[in-house]
């Protein structure tokens, strides 16, 4: 069962947000939403494709894997300038808290 609640294992408090984001690995990317953020990382939820069923864990897992280095680009509000952070995928799966498929990432040291 890939559904889990990793939130209790976090070392830092996370702030719930809903920021448009793009997660890029090499020349490929997936759009989604940053659902929560802390100084150390984020939970990124992959968006549904228009006219299709929501992404399954296996769909996201085909693109991202634990340990992958990614570039996360996100905006905190529509008029804000995009922010970019290098991060590393820690896990891919379903979030019980948010009821969706997503990716836990830790930010790389600046």
Radius of gyration equals: 13 Å
Instruction: Give the biggest beta sheet.
Output: 6 strands, antiparallel, barrel
Low-confidence stretches: 1-5, 49-53
Measured as a percent range, the helix fraction is under 10%
Structural class, from helix and strand content? mainly beta
Q: How many helices does DSSP assign? A: 1
Number of E-type strands: 7
Give a nutshell description of this structure:
With 110 residues, this protein is mostly beta strands.
Overview of the molecule:
With about 110 residues, the protein is mainly beta. It is about 5% helix and about 50% strand. A six-stranded antiparallel beta barrel has the order 2-3-4-7-6-5. The longest helix is centred in the middle third of the chain and has 7 residues, at about 55-65. It is globular, with a radius of gyration of 13 Å.
What are its keywords?
mainly beta, 6-stranded antiparallel barrel, 1 helix
List the helices and strands and how they pair.
Elements: E1 3-4, E2 15-25, E3 28-37, E4 41-46, H1 57-63, E5 69-74, E6 83-95, E7 100-107
Parallel strand pairs: 1-6
Antiparallel strand pairs: 2-3, 2-5, 3-4, 4-7, 5-6, 6-7
